Amino acid sequence: MRAHLEAGYPNEACGILLGEADFRNGGQLAAAKHVKDLVLVPNVWEVESEREGRRNRYLISPEDVARADREASRKGLDIIGFFHSHPDCPARPSETDREFAWPVISFVIVSVEKRKAVTTNSWVLRDDRSRFDEEALQVI
Ligand SMILES: [Zn+2]
């Protein structure tokens, strides 16, 4: 994940998390999510201006999500989250991230400073979409 995000610097880079999670509880996850695999995808954000370019926006194409979903099914997994980098910015969700995210699944954000991945945080949007809560991350 870090290598993919560092390679994308100074643009935002992104990907999809495949794994196992118990989604039965209406999204109120008591149990942990387990990431088992990653799908690395290109940032296909259409650059419209310097202010909103790929350095601070990302977009994953619906085709890549569909491909990741098929790959997950083949492996007996689900899409349990997405990840993207914040080049030279903190690993906290932006207002744009909140607007486009949805509850239950994980949004992992990695701050990449001068092409080096430094901080990795995971976030889940509240059901009322008011804010993100941070999830504990454990590398096993
Ligand atoms: Zn972001």
Question: How does this structure look, described?
Answer:
The chain has 140 residues and is of the alpha+beta class. It has a single domain (2-135), classed as Cytidine Deaminase, domain 2. Helix content is 19%, strand content 34%. It contains three helices and six strands. It has helices spanning 2-8, 62-74, 95-100; strands spanning 14-20, 34-41, 78-87, 106-113, 116-125, 132-135. It has a six-stranded mixed beta sheet with strand order 2-1-3-4-5-6. Strand 3 (78-87), helix 3 and strand 4 form a beta-alpha-beta unit. It is globular and about 40 Å long. The structure holds zinc ion.
Order of helices and strands: HEEHEHEEE
Q: In percent terms, what proportion of residues is strand?
A: 25-35%
Q: Segments where pLDDT lies below 50 for 5+ residues? A: none
Count of the domains: 1
User: How helix-rich are the residues, as a percent range?
Assistant: 10-25%
Largest sheet: 6 strands, mixed
The counted number of beta strands is: 6
Pairing-aware structural class of the strands and helices? alpha+beta
Q: CATH architecture, please?
A: 3-Layer(aba) Sandwich
Ligands bound, unique:
zinc ion
On the 0 to 100 scale, the average pLDDT is 92
Number of contiguous helices: 3
Overall body shape: globular
> What would the CATH topology be?
Cytidine Deaminase, domain 2
Radius of gyration, in angstroms, nearest whole number: 15 Å
CATH class: Alpha Beta
How far is the N terminus from the C terminus?
15 Å
Strand order of the largest sheet: 2-1-3-4-5-6
**Any idea what the CATH superfamily is called?**
Cytidine Deaminase, domain 2
